[in-house]
Records
---
Amino acid sequence: MKMWMNVMRDMEYLLADYDRILDAWGEGGVTGLVIGPPEFNTPKVDFDKEYVPCEEPVTESFDPNPEVYRRFGLEPPPSPEDKLPEKRARLRKALQTASDRGFDVYLWQSQVGWGPGGDGHYLFDEKTMASYSARIIDRLEQFPMAKGTVFDSPEWGYEIHPHYNDLVTSVFYQMPEEMRAGVAAMGYDFDALNAAKDRFFENLHNLDRRRVRLHASGGFLGGLHLFGADPDLTALLRFRMESLTAHYRRVKEGVDAEATRPIEVGIGSRAAVFAPLCGFDLAALAEFADFLCPKFYVFNRGFDGLVGTVNRYVETICDWNSELTDKDALEVVRALFGLELPGVQSRGDLEYALTPEFYETVMGQETRRVLAVVDNPEKIVPWVDAGRAPHAGDPLSPGDLGRLIHAAGEAGLQRFLYHHQGNLTPGEWSVMSDICGKRWRREKSEYCPPDDFIL
């Protein structure tokens, strides 16, 4: 098994001591480095503070090259006022050192700092998508030791909550008026799609026990009727996948057409179980992306964890439908996602969901699903997150992390991406280094993971 390491919002940590850190990571089996957003002094959300203080304002790590933007007929974004030449030089040296030592180097969210774009919504606007492509090319051409970039947005919302469903992360997010033209250009009715979303919202408020117990276990046809047999809802889900695929394809085509060297593009998505609701057509994305990074996050609570998402769906469905039991709500979850957690019959059981059987069956199946869309297993590099508060969720032990990695490996996975080194604990590093390289021993190493609490 191979491991990549994510350095997120804390480039300065790596830059301060990159020789020692890279030595330790290489010995522990790290073969890839994903770093970014590639800006200096980026604020880091802390669990005890609103932000970790920065000595200097956030600033870009390079000056834009106007020639790149001229290839697209665009104006370049402005150069940062503070050049931070010493930090820039150290970043280039650190990344070159990593590359020279055999690490595959990628920049996370290389489109950051794009613009100026067009007047339309970023998901559809041709000028804005071109500005994404230009910014990626500009950054990667100025950092030639990096092989490519990894996207972690955009996506459609898939979360649910008893009370807060107007957020962009919600499955019930109201498409804004600025999307109307883009929706119409794709052949869809903007008002009909928003209305279907509203009917789905109402449907989930009016589930009765008879319908759930009749239809929830009835496969596609049962689920179709459980959720109202609504053709516009089907159209909405299809639109989500087509719009997101078209967006990523357009940006990738722009990069391929105008870059002076090959630039690999990886696309971060949710796990296969949630991907369609988020708009990720993994099979279609695999046709043009160089690799995919689905989220293999399994923790409870927080955000983006598999068990936590199931927990929120059960909580919300029961809150909206007082006659339903937890078991009924779990049947609704199964109808929506095809997901059944071994041994889980209630919300209380979710506290014990992460059993060896869970990793073997659920995560084994999730791994096989994403591997099915590629011709080379190395084109799948799932994110994993564990530690003391993964994505603000419940702690995930080193043992659970090891069970997750072993189950995915048994299903055919060959590499994964750890998120992120700022929160890496000694226990996690011990487990991952044992699986991927030489087991780390604190008493014999000059390196110790930061073990922080930063999102």
---
Amino acid sequence: MIAPLLERASRRAECADAVEKTDETLTLQFEAGKFRSAGRALERGVNLRVVAGGRIGFAGTTGDDPDQLVESAMASARVGEAGRLDLPVPVSLPSVLTSVPRAAVADLETLRDIGAGVADRLAGDGCQVNVTVERSVGEVRVANSLGVECFYPVSAVSVSAELVRVTGDDIVIINDHRAGADLPALADLERMVQQMRLRLAWAGTTAEAPEGRRPVCFAPTALPALLLPVQLACVGKTVLQGSSPLAGRIGDHRFDSGFSLVDDPLAEGRSGSRPVDDEGVVSRRFPLVEAGVICGFIYDVESATRAGVAPTGHGRRTTFGKPQPAYTNLVVNPGSLGFDELLALVDDGLLVDELLGVGQGNVIGGAFSHPVALAWRVINGEVVGRVTATQVAGNALDLLDRLRGVGREVEWRGSQASPAMVVDGVAVVGR
């Protein structure tokens, strides 16, 4: 549909671009260790954007009528924002793995075996085991009126597991997740199982939480509390709106030298990997922070045009939404310390695995105050017991300038990869 759509749109608009996405998702649910259900969902959508009469309009459809979609986009432009778009021109695309044939054709039996294997390995210890296995396969087509025509296939397989242990009034919930373009390797699933069982064993005893400003080891699952303010501050649209605390600071040494953050759409076989964004801009590895120095901000076509800079390949579009700048695969570069060496840096503090309420509050300013969902007290590098009724607080932008150490083992969870980090001076308080 995308070719006739743009042909029609180009007759009536100064310029136009479109993205067409298809997706078939098979989802399997295991509850209390038993297979419960399987469901299949089919989705297809087309998003069209036009510039007509100096105004920007967009529209989406799940149908097959290009004339109606063009008419809707033109109607949107009549009341849309005034502006222009510097659309990309055709260039060669980088090679990146986004689809694996064996994952794309994986059937119900194969996926069921994966889920049952994880559930069986986690069984025992008086816990309820819940597992979800999901396989998606689809295609993305991007084109514009300047001649860009791009296509790439997509496959994705994810495995999510949950352990729930109830002892009287005490409830322990441990979650983990793996995802990628391929079927998960047995070694990766075994590592997930062993990590969950270790965290469960640590949760077998409780300890009083320390109070005051303490060193805290943030596990990869808890790092979003520190990373989210940096992500938001490095979005070019936020910079244009004047709300980014990092605006005007490219080249500044803002964080600890041990902290580096990159957005990498060319990572092989990962959830956010792609050769081109949803606006036809070629993907490239994009450093946000390197050795503590702010390197750049991400832009889609519209925000880049407004800022007078080149788009960075971060446009993302849903069927009915306006294109927005968004990340692909966020990667925190590893350090040099093993996990035991990291914990040895904590004389009396916490190991935090999961926090509640991440993303709420004054995120853009960096301030956070989150109750812990799962955390342990650490004394002289040893885990001594799980803490409850505790929260951690601070300013993420400041805490990232106070690193004690960064782990060397990077763990992928969905489209984010990070090691564990020990940060000094986190406020730990009871609640």
---
Amino acid sequence: MRGFASEMWNRNRYGLAATAMIRQFPLFGVGVGSFQVLLPDFARLTGPPLPLDNAQNWYRHQFVEFGAVGSLGWLAWIAVFGRFVLTRRPSDPPGAWIARGMLVAFALISLVGMSGQEIGVALTFWTVAFWYVWLVGPPQPVRPAPRRAWAAVVTLLVVFTVGTTAAALGALRVPFRAQRAGWPYSYGFGDPLRIGDAEYKPVTGRAVEVVDASSGWMALTFLANPAGGSGRSRTVRAWCDGRLVVDDPVPTDPLTKLIRLRDTQKRVVLEVSFTGGAPGLDTAGIRGPDGFVRWGFPDPPRER
């Protein structure tokens, strides 16, 4: 019985992956329709890769994608409508038991599956729900919601929108997902080029790469593209894990900055952008890189 209950909850590790998502994003979830997208990342935490599928539990799947804040609405609806369905009335017609049984069965089936994702099943559920209300009658006369109720709804929507946007621009961004899950990720950086006695990576636009850190310090060296000068000053900005660490003009000579990383940091999301000037163009009129960057992980500097 214990093994059966455990499997009904874990469901071949889909439940474990869903629980891990809830633990990491409890308030605003991972985004509507994003469970399958993030499943490969979280499946690695519990074992080998899993084929793409849902959370095997309708309530858990909804909670994973909406979080606690986004789930307040449907959780409140389930509580209110569930009480309405389970309340027995002497005046209930015989057909009400059929509709009530279908609704309760659907609620129980949703604990171990997600048949509600099918359009036909969803339409059947709502047809039965309205049929039941028509048979037994609404619990009270319909009246407009008070202003404070609408104010609460609007406030909840604003909070959820802000929270979801912050998660999308932060921990749920693809490079940060790659950082946590351990897979490579890079865009905006070109193949290494030798300039002088060192190799640099060309930077076009805002370049991002997940870099393996071998020490607690990161040395960044920047070099502007001379072809893009046009008499205007160039500025380089660099971010480590979303934290702005460099915002300086780029001189003719290479500019080197030493950045302190977190002690427990093993992988760094490095973002680099050169602004100002004009993009350099080659003989074919194709845009060249905005600048160049190289990085390394030196030993910690000695205290004086």
---
Amino acid sequence: MNRYALWQYLIIVVALIFGVLYTVPNFFGEAPAVQVSSQKPTIKVDTAMRDRIETTLRGANITFDSATFETVGLNATVRVRLADPDTQLKVKDTLEHALNPDPKDPTYVVALNLVSRTPGWLKQIRAQPMYLGLDLRGGVHFLLQVNMKEAVEKRVESIAGDLRTLLRDKSIRHGGINRNGNTLDIRFRDDETRKRAEDIIKDANRDLVLREEGEGADLRVIANLSPGAIKNVQDYALKQNITTLHNITGSTNSVSPNR
């Protein structure tokens, strides 16, 4: 003889069915993806951006699983789901070049991400995977790209400031020190002053390679970092970022140079 009414057993069965159904998304895992969002408030990401991304990837002969347009509050993104991490990195580089022709003034943020492999029919009934916290997932893995070009340019800009101070302290008159990328252009009005300045700069900074240019009243010294000095700057930038991440997270990080 049953102790409970039939409807009570039915409630238990229905609850178990719903429990199993909404647990299923956790078994599908996550897929590597690339997420595109706007860098500037005046630029909006919409379905046209999704179509543009699909066209760009097909033109580059890159296979992708899907490209979806999503909105969360006021934020809109396009997420491209991919089969493996190697394709993920390739897609990121391709979209970076296509969407941000000027790396110094990017319009869009192209970031690595992970998306759920949960089928669409489960998503339609709001069945989503349970995302574990960092303590349960075993920490976090960082992939950091160090902008080597910017690191070298900052070093050259710092040297330019040091040279201005050095020449001023040595009472060497010059027509200005201008930086053009990784090159310093130092102007002089006479050859004697230029020679004195060259000797002082060589003694103060062994990392610079100097050459003379110009004639008449437009005499110049062109200064560039030596290949060895550039490598030292890049190595230091990598070590500095790795050290910073270790101090913050205490975890293992992967750092890739962005030359």
